[in-house]
Every structure is written in C-alpha cells, then in structure tokens.
Design goal:
The protein has 482 residues and is α/β, with parallel strands linked by helices. Helices cover 39% and strands 19% of the residues. It is built from 18 helices and 21 strands. The strands form 4 sheets. The chain has a 6-stranded mixed beta sheet with strand order 15-14-11-12-13-16, sandwiched between helices. α5 links the parallel β11 and β12. The longest helix is centred in the middle third of the chain and has 20 residues. The radius of gyration is 28 Å and the shape is elongated.
Amino acid sequence: MQVLIRIGAEVTLKSARVRARFQRQLKKNIAAALHGVEYQLSDEWSRFFLELEDKQALARLNHVAGIASYSLIDTSCAPEVEVIVAQARDFYRPRVANKSFAVRAKRRFAHKFSSAQVTSAVGAALLPYAARVDLSHPDITINVEIRAQRALFFTSTVTTQGGLPVGTGGRVVSLISGGFDSAVASFLMYNRGLSLDFVFCNLTAGRAHERSVLRVIEALCQNCGYGDMPRVFCVDFTAVLADLRQKVAPRYQQVLLKRLFYRSAALIAQQRQAQAIVTGEALGQVSSQTLSNLAAITPATALPILRPLLGYNKEQIIALAEKINTRAHSARVREYCQLNNARPATAMSGERAAAEEQRLDLQLLEAATLQARVVSVAHIATLTAASTYLQRADIPPAAVVIDCRPKQVYEHWHYPAAQHRDFNQLLTTCHELPAAPTYVVYCEAGLLSTAIAERMQERGYDAYSLTGGDKQARQLAAAALH
C-alpha cells in the first residue's frame, strides 16, 4: 500500500536550506518509528510517499512530530481529466452506491485544466450510481490530488501532531518526576523539535519508584519521542534530602528542593551539552510554583528554564496526558510529589532562598549527580518487568500491618490494628523494626509502600506492599466484617 504524508506547515514555511535539513531529520525520525518494518520512503519536497505492507505499523506515524497528516492512497492514474474521470468511476462506483458523496480536487502543479473542472467532471460521472451529492455531510468524500506526473485518490485523512521534527531544535534536559506535568511538558518540547534527556531525582532511592517513572518515560517516547535515543539520569537524592531536612526549616524545604533539582539538572546538561532545562511547572498549581517562589528558584542555574505548562490548568494537562498515553502511568506516581505536611512558604525571596541554600552541603549534590545511574530508553522494557515479589493483595492473619499515609488520614480511618509510621522516617529506619512472620505495608495508591517493602526485603524481612493501597485495605477490612 502507498501512503501520502503531508509535512507540517511549520516545516514547509522554512527557507529552502533549513527546510531541506528539517526534512532530512524527519525522514530519519520516520525510519526510527518504522524500525523493524519493511518500507520505502520517497521525498517529493512538499510530500513524502511511503510504501509498506504492514498496515498496523501505519499508526506509528501519528506520533512523529513534523507530520501534519497522512492518507492511504486508494488508486492513482495519469493527470489527465478524461483518465481521472474514468479511474474515479471504475474505482468508486461500488463505494458510492446508495450513499451521498462529495468530490474535492486540488492541483499541486500547473495543468491545462482547473481543480473545479475535475471536481465537476468526477461528480457528474459518479452521480448516476449514488444516492445524491452532499457537500456538507457526505457519507463518502473522494479526494483527488493532482500532481505533476499522476493523480492520487483517497477518501480519509488522519491528522497527526504536526510540530517540528525531533532533533532540529537542539538538546535540553527535562526534570521528570513521573507525574502528569513533567511528562506533558516533555511532550510539548518534543513537538518543538528538541532532543531530550531526562533527569529523575529519586527521593526514596527505591528501584520500585524508579521503575514507575521509567514506565512513564517509555510511554512518552513511544508516543512522541522518535529521534535519537534519550538517556535517563537517575540521581539518588536521599543523602541530599536528608541534609536538606536537617538544616532547613520545613516551610522552606519545597523551594530549596526545587533549587537542588535545578542544580542537578544543570550538571547533567553540562555533560550532555544541553542548552536548557525543561520543567513541568504550572503557575500557581502548588506552593513552589507561585510567581514569587519561581523567581526564587530560577537563579539556582544560569541555564534557561523552559516551562511550557506555565499557563495550563490541571484539566488541560491531564487531557494532554491522556492524548500521549502517559496518564495511566503518571496516575500511579503522583503521590511521591509531597515532601512534608508543613505549611510551605508561598512567597520566598531570592535572597532568603540563597541564604538558606548556603546552609547545605552542595558537594553531596554534586557527588550524587556524578554518580547518577544512566538508563537508555531502549532498555527500559527489560528494567520495568513486573516486580510481583514486592506486592500481595491479601493480609495474612499473623501479619504486622503498617500504614504509611499522612497521620491525619490514618486517624480518619485505618485498617484495624494497623500501626502508623511516617513514610520518610520508615524509609531510613525500617531495618530497626522487630522480627515478624510477615509485614504488609500500605499507602494511598501502593507506590510509597512498594518502596518500603523493597527496602525491607533488602534487609531480610518478609515484607510486601498491599496492591491497590488504601482502596484494597478498605475492601479487606469490609470483607473481614462479613
């Protein structure tokens, strides 16, 4: 089958030299998208023509930035009115039977006839076999694109994401937490032609948390990241976080933590020769994203900070996450965003932030960043295999149950006989827990508790995270009453 690929308008408006470079990159990205599929791709400047047999692989074009739309070509013929009319009649006569139809014709090169003449002639030839002509809401629309050497016929067009080809705009690093915002921000920067690497600052040091974030990145790159293969820098932030908690008042910790994220990303940007840092910050969404606090955070690095979501609301962000297929993965990671339950500062000055930062040991940050674990996106699938050994859906009779949700949530409701433990404290002191036949830990959604279970198993405990978190705990408690 043959496919007509339309190049995005932003590419076609470039100068001839720049456009040629962009189209070369776009061809490379299409090749990456179709890896493992036999195909042929030709470039006719304003159009690409793709030939392939695997129809399922066609959907991969939906996620290649720089493509505006594509159409499966039904048939083609010589660019002459009589030939076009005959071909349309022979091919579409059975398709328009008892249906309304419309004809849309466009010339892409100069010919002795007009587009209107072709539209009228094809419509007249097919009308005897159809129910009627309907130019507003036809059952079938027959499109004729008349090029220099042939006329192409198609009946449907798939609109894609447009934008600029990935790899044409330079390299940046994206601070990614795995939540909705940072994934969507990364997508928007991909769509502007940037090549991305990712920096994940792991506050728990747990591989369970890391795997969850890697799944988000994998889904993101499968849906919009065709270009060169990104790297993910996983930075163990536990020592940095411990230093922050010890030396900075709780109400300032969120702002200072963001500054440390920026500093870590800047060090990796230097390694990767990246020109800017991408974040998922949206103005006013949380305490660290007020205008005052953003102004206090930004001076932590001299690199430009790209904040594509600055004017978005949460509903718009989640809608985009759904579109790029990261929503389901991000929904499982969001509970990691909370640092503490203290009332955070919402209008911290840059001077105060810099003064507080002087209390910290920035050598810890530099050491953690230089020792970052580097993962290629190509290898994520093998690293994120389901780790069922960390989870279970039941609570054995002799198990010790630990609830690591916030204290006020625990006091409102908890599983009968469950002990409350602060997550951050438990993460560093779980090795001090007394011996027990089995430990079952639960939190709100099951991710924080997985990090705890992983840490406890490493220290020899028979410990598990309750699959489904709080919801599963409630169901088990209700079942026990009956």
